[in-house]
Amino acid sequence: MPQRLKIAAAGLGRMGKRHALNFLNRTPRAELVAAFTPDAKEREWAKTNLEPYGVTLYDDYLKMLEHPGLNAVVIGTATTVHAEEAIQAMQKNLHVLCEKPLSTNLDICRQVVAEAKRRPHLKVMCGFSRRFDASYRDAFNKTQKGQIGRGVFVDMSVHDIDLTLWFFGDDIVPKSVSAHGIRAVQPALEKYNDFDNAVGIVEFWGGKIAYYYCSRMMAHGQEDTTEIIGTEGKLSVNCNPQINLVNHYHPEGITRKVPADYYGRFEMAFVQESNEFTEACLENKPLPMKLDNAVKAVEIGAALQEALVTGRQIRFDETGKRQKTSRL
Amino acid sequence: MPQRLKIAAAGLGRMGKRHALNFLNRTPRAELVAAFTPDAKEREWAKTNLEPYGVTLYDDYLKMLEHPGLNAVVIGTATTVHAEEAIQAMQKNLHVLCEKPLSTNLDICRQVVAEAKRRPHLKVMCGFSRRFDASYRDAFNKTQKGQIGRGVFVDMSVHDIDLTLWFFGDDIVPKSVSAHGIRAVQPALEKYNDFDNAVGIVEFWGGKIAYYYCSRMMAHGQEDTTEIIGTEGKLSVNCNPQINLVNHYHPEGITRKVPADYYGRFEMAFVQESNEFTEACLENKPLPMKLDNAVKAVEIGAALQEALVTGRQIRFDETGKRQKTSRL
Amino acid sequence: MPQRLKIAAAGLGRMGKRHALNFLNRTPRAELVAAFTPDAKEREWAKTNLEPYGVTLYDDYLKMLEHPGLNAVVIGTATTVHAEEAIQAMQKNLHVLCEKPLSTNLDICRQVVAEAKRRPHLKVMCGFSRRFDASYRDAFNKTQKGQIGRGVFVDMSVHDIDLTLWFFGDDIVPKSVSAHGIRAVQPALEKYNDFDNAVGIVEFWGGKIAYYYCSRMMAHGQEDTTEIIGTEGKLSVNCNPQINLVNHYHPEGITRKVPADYYGRFEMAFVQESNEFTEACLENKPLPMKLDNAVKAVEIGAALQEALVTGRQIRFDETGKRQKTSRL
Amino acid sequence: MPQRLKIAAAGLGRMGKRHALNFLNRTPRAELVAAFTPDAKEREWAKTNLEPYGVTLYDDYLKMLEHPGLNAVVIGTATTVHAEEAIQAMQKNLHVLCEKPLSTNLDICRQVVAEAKRRPHLKVMCGFSRRFDASYRDAFNKTQKGQIGRGVFVDMSVHDIDLTLWFFGDDIVPKSVSAHGIRAVQPALEKYNDFDNAVGIVEFWGGKIAYYYCSRMMAHGQEDTTEIIGTEGKLSVNCNPQINLVNHYHPEGITRKVPADYYGRFEMAFVQESNEFTEACLENKPLPMKLDNAVKAVEIGAALQEALVTGRQIRFDETGKRQKTSRL
């Protein structure tokens, strides 16, 4: 049998389980050989769902990295340990697929990137699942073919900052950032300086704008509608959210359901991600996305957060360097 | 025959013609008795399309106001003369339906309102056509019934500032305003300090946010999609723009057409507007919208424009008074 | 003022009222001068809604036809008297717009057509509202331009038999007819030899097929979806029924409403019909549809009904002559 | 490792390849151990795509059945050999998943069923992929919960006869059958007594009707729209065909693409089918669909074909016995 990528899964929480099962069952060229969790309940689950299929269980992350013949790790633990675990895996010469974000701390993000740059033979990817979704890819390909002229404006969810980099180009530099938020349903968020609905605008050098919306109130389910507006046309992704192809006609009208959460919308994108990461590792192909972008996405997110909390416009010069004052 | 409202049309340009014909043909309780235009070409059109149906033509606005038995004027001239003509009509004791905006100058807007307040027996309305559109009315009624909880966020076109006042309530007060713009297709706009794509956010006191988008690049036609997001649900208006109910299935996919312009989308709303204005005049009923809102819409538009050009966040206190600095 | 068509309305039931008001208020070149109803309650309505606007009321149809200066009659009475009233009006030299059907009896239909042929200067039209609907017209125009190749198959409601003649061409000749029905909700219909759901197929000479569906169970409202399938494409009309452009997003999904009845769907088509009939009369232009078609639609309907009740296939030769047996 | 189902694939044509790969890569509890093809080109493909992953290749079907430890066969060969191969596999005590149809000959279909009845410990399934599609399942579940009252009418593609049995119940008995066809684009089909567009109606005992449409002219791609109409509501499946969630807004309108073929629409249903068949075999659970239905679907299809060619209505008594004459 041709070589398969021996991979270990770190973290078996909600998303970690999904990564483990995707590599176990839906990634033909990978072999899930090990899994780590410090959590007793998750270990019980793993004893039933992973161990019988030849997956060795560990309660020590570093020991798992010593698993014989291991090639790669998929990291799906808590955000706070993503970066440290990614660096430890690289130091053991392992490829890394890490859940986003690398870290919410920009300096720590940059350490991961630096470590990865020192080991260019390793494939290190921070997985932004939308990049693997068939609809977003179709939209991206249409923009590349010039079908909407130059894309100059995107309207999307704040979870999609990475999409902006994809659609506008990885070299894009933010110019100014504004944000506003409200506490519509959770007034208690005030003591955490947080909001339950927020919007932000990022203007980029070169004449492009991104608009982000974020809400904790989507009663009808997962939506994630995206618009990419170009000089000669527009693309929309998911402007009619639906869980499947059924419409129910009843005395009150016609109703369709919506996926309850992001995994209902993006399940197949995660499977695609596992397969493409595996192929890149096995065949030493370029990864489908750059690690640097994961830092830039956090950077933009941090600027939006600061603009939101301070009520000031944040500005950057053409090299991306933060400017001291929000005054012109 | 029951009393009909004798009305005169001022201005016979693109929109003025439509108002004149709507009052002539599609407003049963009104009678178009006079029309004014200073333009020779427009007069030629009026000789064929209005005069034969009993409409007296004038090339002097003030003389038209003296037309025997006249009750009301619909003003569809150039924006620069809206306010003056509205005031002159009121001074002749005539009801006024004025195209928006009253003026782009806030002080002049306020003069119109002041004049109207002095003559409370007159019906003076600045027509925002979306308020008369069946879909927006349905959306508004659903919000009034609490079907989406409290509406807290709207996403719409900048032409729709008035809709914000309608959906959030006429007494709402802006708190802070941000805006960003680009020149994507017309770099020459720089010398006019203008943009071809712009976005803005208005945060209101009381925890509500409006997001506006404005573009000169809608290749596919008129869109005007609106979202009203509430604490317990969401309403969208026109998220699938279409000119009629036809879908064309062809080898490249399935295509539907979009109205070419705002009149393709809102024609029936203008007819509804004519009829409701007429009824309010004849039966001394309250107008469907307050004149003050027309001022507030201009005020918010001006703040967006200032934020756009200066790159500063504009702030207001809880009484709506402009604050001096954009600093917190 | 230019000449207007003086028209009288016969019948002020549900549809009659609508015709009367459309000619009174929404047909600028027509003048509703008279109305007839034998019903006391309808007359009360007319006293409030028609008489004050200069409409003379009659309780005798023949007397109404003598109304001074009358040019035309719109007949919206009970189906059983359509034909007789149409003939009487023609005999008084009046143009006639008659609600469909002319009659459910084929011979009587043909008498109306014969009478109309004797008076070619009169405009006599049996109004099939779908022909005046903007969406159907767009679909028709697209087929005429060859955008779906040759149209060879239509799928529609049984109320739409006339549409088949329009899309396939007025000269089309039926070849064979099959139909099946059930009593899903009203078993008592058996004693009337009737059904509450029925489907039928009409094959035409020249290689075209129409499929019709008819149900009394459309819980969600008016639908009237039509498909026109051509050799190189397809057109659909109203495959996503909706009453307006609003979508309501709620915890159970996304819901849109549907018009409650055919008038909710076709109101503007009736207005268009009034205006086009008026123009044809005033300017002696060809009517937008042939009177013969009204007979052919009844003929096809009768064949479907016979096929439904007898369970036999009905056959016609290439001249449209009924064949004796359903055997090949 | 827990027991996995050792399965062999017969036939590596277009659909056979897909079955083989689905069992190899996307059916975790199955192990593709062998594959058979008599075709040299297909064998070349298998040498690259199957053999390296431990799949033994055979050019003799009967020899493949002797593969050590084999539990099951998936048959994706030409229709003419489906039945014989299914019977041979059963005789070797193997579970069988057979592509549809079992045979186009009713007697041969019945032989397969008879053989399967003699060996009740074997799982023998004729795969109708729509039964495994998430949207059809959702529609089915909604009908089971009574959300549209009793389902009484279905409108679907002729490929979907099996769906009728599913939605109306496996015990349903046809009552009468009508069909009509045309040769719209391929007049040469006349010599084969065949048509390129055909429609048929099947009325069932108990008051239910199915309408089927079949065309070789779907220029825009795969459609497979289904409607299930109940006494209190309606369900539609795929009334807005689309290949993904992208809409392209351009100067000609708004366009979405459609899957090019049935596999573009039903790929995941085939994966689901593989997994459910595997689970039923391993755990001796009931199969998700009865083998008898495969015969009944062919029977109804044959009646439609006969009605189409003869122009007669075909009738059955309440036991499903064919009646001699089409007369009442």
Structural summary, described in words:
- 4 copies of one chain form a homotetramer.
- In chain A, the strands form 3 sheets. In chain A, strands 12-11-7-10-9-8-15 form a 7-stranded mixed sheet, with helices on one face. In chain A, strands 3-2-1-4-5-6 form a 6-stranded parallel sheet, sandwiched between helices.
- The longest helix of chain A has 22 residues, at 262-283.
- Chain A folds into 2 domains: 5-127, Rossmann fold (3-Layer(aba) Sandwich), CATH 3.40.50; 152-221 and 260-315, 2-Layer Sandwich (Dihydrodipicolinate Reductase, domain 2), CATH 3.30.360.
- Chain A has helices at 14-25, 40-49, 61-65, 79-91, 106-118, 134-144, 161-168, 262-283, 291-310, and strands at residues 5-10, 30-36, 56-58, 72-75, 95-99, 124-127, 151-157, 174-182, 197-204, 208-215, 226-230, 234-237, 246-250, 253-256, 314-315.
- The model of chain A has no long low-confidence stretch (mean pLDDT 93).
- Chain A has 9 helices and 15 strands.
- The radius of gyration of chain A is 21 Å and the shape is globular.
- In chain A, strand 5 (95-99), helix 5 (106-118) and strand 6 (124-127) form a beta-alpha-beta unit.
- With 328 residues, chain A is α/β, with parallel strands linked by helices.
- The C-D interface holds C 148, 150, 152-153, 155, 176, 178-185, 197, 199, 201, 203, 207-209, 211, 213, 215, 217-220, 229-234, 239-240, 310-313, 315, 326-328 and D 148, 150, 152-153, 155, 176, 178-185, 197, 199, 201, 203, 207-209, 211, 213, 215, 217-220, 229-234, 239-240, 310-313, 315, 326-328.
- Strand 13 of chain B pairs antiparallel with strand 12 (233-237) of chain C, so a sheet runs across the interface.
